[in-house]
Amino acid sequence: MSNAVSALDGKTSAGDVTIREDGLRGMISLRGDLGLAKLRSVCTGLTGVDFPKQGQAASTGHQGLAWMSPDEVLVMVPHDAVPDALTKIAKALQGQHHLAVDVSDARAVLIMEGAFCREVIAKLAPVDLHPDAFGPGDFRRSRLGQIAAAFWMRDAACIEVVCFRSVADYAFDLLAAAANGGPVGHFPNS
Question: pTM here?
């Protein structure tokens, strides 16, 4: 068996907004009844964060939960914890209609940190990113340029982006180019 490697081998772009690949992250796409107490319980038990509301994400370190759709949540755990997490999900939801799939190696995680990271995303995504409409904990599935991506604000100066591994290098370069263009001053300091 080969060793798992991240999509961009820790690539970083430093500047007013720092962009870095976050390395290996365990990700499980879990589909089922998101109102089911057993489903919510196993998710929060695996990640240590509250179950997200619609359009929200909660994360700490490499662990977290992101609301993907009315019947799907993205469960994030350390990369090496995925097999155990899948076993716990199967045991907790035995007899319940659900689907849990390891999507870790199909995705890449990029982290942007800096005062105008909100503007970097706003240059690329057709999403209202005004502070009144998008703040810490908010999560969106959208596009960055021409590629599918999801992103959420960890805090006012940090946004995490998840994209397909196959376009990770393109996504990184796109974010870096938007960051290098500097702020446009559209949003008030947030």
Answer: 0.93
